[in-house]
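Weekly puzzle thread! Below is a chain. First person to post its structure in token form gets bragging rights.
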Amino acid sequence: MKKALLLVIVMVASQSLFAQVELTPYGGWLWTGSIFMPTYQGNWNSQNAKVTDMGNYGVRLGVKLPNYMIAEFEWNHTNMDFEYRDFDGEQQSIPVSANYYWLGGIRELSDGPVIPFGIFNIGAANFKNTENGNNATYFAVGFGGGIKYFMNDKIGIRLQARIMAPMTFNGVFFGCGISTGGSGCGTGLSSSSSIIQGDFTGGIILKLGAE
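Winning reply:
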């Protein structure tokens, strides 16, 4: 992601080559689902482990290109809980800090104060167990759309909905010292299933470049 951030900095530093730069701080809501999670022992042959729905926030930095295109870098943060049952059937919860780093392409569909758009993202998602610091990073893909409304030539509002394509979790991905013998959380859970995430966000657009 350092190369991606450097690319964005170079693009902003060379904004005379582009029409304008948009900075968009935002907040919203990230929803998830359940993960099918088989166990190593017979007490619980399978279960649906839950990743809780939580609020999220972040910032987007976009550089407008020709033909209604925008190249965009985004950082998105949320805190969530991973909930499951151990071998004894007891409910367990692991607090997780998640950071998403996206590179995206936006296609605006019109001119004017109201601008619908579509978006496609690729990037990385880092999940960290906030109790013991264990973490893992996974490839992520997202797509969605939304609408921009500009009150003047410098300030606007952006509303967006996005789906994050399935991400595969092998083991309890944010680390809990888990193995067949058990340590840390004292379980033996593993998963190779996928989860679909998505978010609804709203933010303020600040145009930094010249028209």
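Puzzle host: Confirmed. Bonus trivia for everyone else. The first strand starts at residue 21 and ends at 31.
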